[in-house]
Amino acid sequence: MIENNETIDEFLARHTSDVEELVREAAAKEIVPRWRRLADHEVDLKAGPHDLVTDADRNAELYLTDALAALLPGSVVVGEEAVHANPASYEAIRGEAPVWIVDPVDGTRQFVHGDTGFCTLVALARGGVVHASWTYAPVRDQFATAVRGRGAHLDGERLRAGSPEPGRDLRVATSHPDYTTDEQKRALLGLWTDGVAPRDCGSAGLEYLAIARGESDATAFSWEAAWDHAAGLLLVEEAGGAHLTRTGEPFDIRGGNTLPFTAARDAATARRVVELLADGA
User: Fold this and answer.
1) pLDDT of the residue at 4
2) Over the chain, what HEC string results?
3) In the sheet where 142-147 sits, what is the strand order?
4) Whole-structure pTM value
5) Tens of pLDDT along 144-159?
6) What are phi and psi of 11, to 5 degrees?
7) Which one, of 167, 221, 227, lies nearest residue 198 by Cα?
């Protein structure tokens, strides 16, 4: 808990590893045992053919909700599945209390299909500022953390995104067309040009990790759900990257962003992607 009026930074100095342990426990108890073992009754549709939810999502979120709230009394938890059940609960992101932002299984479609490309995402924010994040791909045995002002790390090694290689096409992960408006589709068409190699995205959390590692160059995403973006955006920032909306402002986890937006390995690449999105709009 936050004691004697300590700051979030002081709390994180004591508890960053505790949060990591809770994330690992949630995955070990509720997610990994169901990977490639899901029964039909454990999988449901939410809003469309690509929007799946499983018992692993629900149970891991419940586990993390209880554990994180207990670790930081006075905090609130905004989880993807809880917001699906009660959309009004999302408003806590815009409040002043510390808020845990949780995506229990980011990449549920991949999880259901037995792929390894899924992860658990947790971020701690306050007043719209993300202070720390945890990204765990349990089957790949990868754990990335970021703490504002203290860098980004993967399995204990410092992450530095670097810059794209000169002369090589920019590798840009983009939103699936099913999740874009007509206006956003026109903006994304700006990426279909010489010098850019766009492709459909997978798990948002793992796309951000790929940027922080320098394996991918940028994203172009068209949705705002904070559980998909909060953890990864801080990871990219702390690895030396940048994020911008189409108006040239950093992405705000509280919403109201002009979409699509980008996260990129460096500021120059972020500006380049935004220019292309504007050209296509």
Assistant:
1) 46
2) CCCCCCCHHHHHHHHHHHHHHHHHHHHHHHHHHHCCCCCHHHEEEEEECCEEEEHHHHHHHHHHHHHHHHHCCCCEEEEHHHHHHCHHHHHHHHCCCCEEEEEEEECHHHHHCCCCCCEEEEEEEECCEEEEEEEEECCCCEEEEEECCCEEEECCEECCCCCCCCCCCEEEEECCHHHCCHHHHHHHHCCCCCCEEEEECCCHHHHHHHHHCCCCCEEEECCCCHHHHHHHHHHHHHCCCEEEECCCCCCCCCCCCCCCEEEECCHHHHHHHHHHHHHHC
3) 76-79, 99-106, 119-126, 129-137, 142-147, 151-154, 157-158
4) 0.95
5) 999 999 999 999 999 9
6) -60, -45
7) 221
Domains delineated in the chain: 8-158 (3.30.540.10), 170-280 (3.40.190.80)
